[in-house]
Amino acid sequence: MVKNILWDFDGVILNSMQVRDYGFRKIFEGHETEQIEQLIHYHRTNGGWSRYVKIRYFYEEILKKNISEKEVLVLASAFSDIMRNELIKLEHLILDSLNFIKDNYKKFNFHIVSGSDEKELQFLCEKLEIDSFFITITGSPTPKNSLVKSVIKSFGYDKDTTILIGDSINDYEAAKKNSLRFYGYNNFSLLELSDFYINSFKEVKF
Question: Where are the annotated coiled coils located (predicted)?
Fold first, then answer.
């Protein structure tokens, strides 16, 4: 029996991938298109990882250059400004999952554990008026694996009654590292990895 649900945010509650693609292209617009597209591929493949990791990856693995923590924070702040302006639009919400959350937030214990910047994430949830549906809303720079572990420990949740819903391999890995069942959503490449795959929340009975 499921009592506690840990939610990823991007791709599960908010359809933000294209907006985040734009954000990375914008903050790195002075670089070669091919290099930027390598980053976009990495970003899409690792949806659950934070912008801090992706910015470092762009410099260290693609550009083969060092980048200071201060430079990472400056770029991450510019990225966040773009996200705050665009992602507060209601059109980006995924109604399939949102309607389930609205109908069931009093029945389950809901938490968001995201690769998105925590302050930005909390800002967006407040502006989108969905923050009241969740007990906690946490994000990067803390790794998702640690966020999941912290929620379970802080609230004393039984792992047998707790699941994680996500749309990326990183969500799957965070669930498995914490011995949770993983419910895949909005990404058919997760079909074989998922303990259960959600095609639509209208069909799900926890």
Answer: none
- Which CATH number fits the domain 4-15+93-203, given the four candidates 3.30.420.40, 3.40.50.1000, 3.40.50.10490, 3.40.462.20? 3.40.50.1000
pTM of the prediction?
0.84
> Which stretches of 92-180 are assigned E, i.e. beta strand?
109-117, 136-140, 162-166
pLDDT per residue as tens digits for the range 39-70: 999 998 887 788 999 999 999 999 999 999 99
Handedness of CA 192, 196, 197, 203 (dihedral sign): positive
pLDDT one-digit tens code per residue, 75-87: 999 999 998 898 9
96 neighbors 11 (Cβ within 8 angstroms): no
> Contact 8/168 with Cβ under 8 angstroms?
yes
